[in-house]
Specification:
- By secondary structure, this protein is an alpha/beta fold.
- The chain has a single domain, classed as 3-Layer(aba) Sandwich (Aminopeptidase), CATH 3.40.630.10.
- It has eight helices and ten strands.
- A six-stranded mixed β-sheet has the order 4-3-5-10-6-9, covered by helices on one side. Strands 1-2 form a two-stranded antiparallel ribbon.
- Its cofactor is Zn(2+).
- Keywords: Hydrolase, Metal-binding, Zinc.
- It comes from Alteromonas confluentis.
- This is Peptidase.
Length: about 300
């Protein structure tokens, strides 16, 4: 793992290093143009609601959710989250694509709650962290220090219907090794494990409720769109044991991951690989959509 240009190796960052890191970040794309302006027209029973705004710039970073105007209690409720890590583009655009192209066809089978871009500052700066140098996807807990996580948690906790399926849309990119893991090691003053970035799509199940047939159904649906990541020489993906083709698991609640946000019996985190020579933006977005549909087909079968 390469050295990081901020901080002293072996010494966790103080507020001064965090500020130095923040000052080095720049806006590279527009949340308004690429997300807000692309919020689609919805079926009659659905609405776009604002559930918060990031305190860094409330007018620039409103937070939106697409949800039913009234939930049908006889239908399962499905939560889709994207952009928890703002730099993982297809999580955001895949969620929007599902809503714009597929929500109408599925609206009478499930109640859908879709938060397409949880971390808009991270989206604009193409960042894993928020401006406080906090990873939102390790921060879904009570009294969370990450406003992105706290506001999403409050919105989801307020849903009266039980969540039946939660799919959290992510990417694993080459910059995980070139930028984000070195930054994490520098911030915390520790040495980070090194692993190869998987070439292909994979899923992260919740180790407490893997529901392997559910994971396999999603993998098979995505396989028609893009290739599935192979295990490495140690039969692992990103350091975790492979449970099935393209499936690993984490203890999501203990790690305060977005996938542990609810008590849904069916939970998975997608991981698309946008840096593959055979990938494109469209393929990555379509893989996210296929993952959602694969999960829906399974839980409704």
């Amino acid at each position: 793992m390469q050295d990081y240009p901020i901080g002293t190796p072996g010494t966790p960052w103080s507020e001064a290093e965090k500020k130095q890191w923040l000052n080095a970040q720049t806006v590279k794309r527009s949340y308004k143009e690429e997300v807000i302006d692309r919020l689609p027209a919805l079926p009659d029973n659905y609405e776009i609601s604002q559930y918060g705004a990031l305190p860094y710039d409330e007018s620039r970073y409103p937070l939106f959710v697409i949800k039913p105007k009234s939930f049908v209690t006889s239908l399962p409720t499905v939560l889709v989250t994207g952009g928890v890590h703002g730099y993982e583009t297809s999580g955001v655009q895949g969620a929007l694509k599902f809503v714009s192209q597929h929500l109408a066809a599925w609206q009478h089978k499930c109640n859908f709650v879709v938060a397409p871009c949880v971390s808009p500052w991270g989206y604009e700066t193409i960042n894993r962290w928020d401006p406080l140098a906090i990873d939102p996807n390790r921060s879904f807990r009570e009294n969370s220090p990450a406003p992105e996580s706290a506001m999403l948690k409050a919105m989801v906790d307020a849903i009266e219907e039980p969540i039946h399926m939660h799919i959290d849309l992510h990417e694993t990119t080459d910059t995980d090794n070139s930028e984000f893991r070195p930054a994490l090691g520098a911030r915390d003053g520790i040495t980070q494990d090194v692993w190869d970035i998987p070439d292909g799509f994979y899923l992260v199940a919740d180790s407490g409720k893997v529901e392997l047939d559910f994971q396999k159904a999603i993998i098979e649906k995505v396989r028609a769109v893009t290739h599935i990541a192979p295990a490495d020489e140690n039969d692992k993906i990103i350091g975790a044991d492979v449970l099935s083709d393209g499936v690993i698991s984490y203890d999501k609640k203990s790690l305060f991951l977005c996938g542990g946000l609810t008590d849904a019996p069916y939970v998975t985190t997608t991981e698309v690989y946008p840096d593959s020579p055979s990938a494109s933006d469209e393929i990555c977005n379509d893989a996210q959509v296929a993952a959602i549909i694969g999960g829906l087909e399974y839980i409704l079968a």
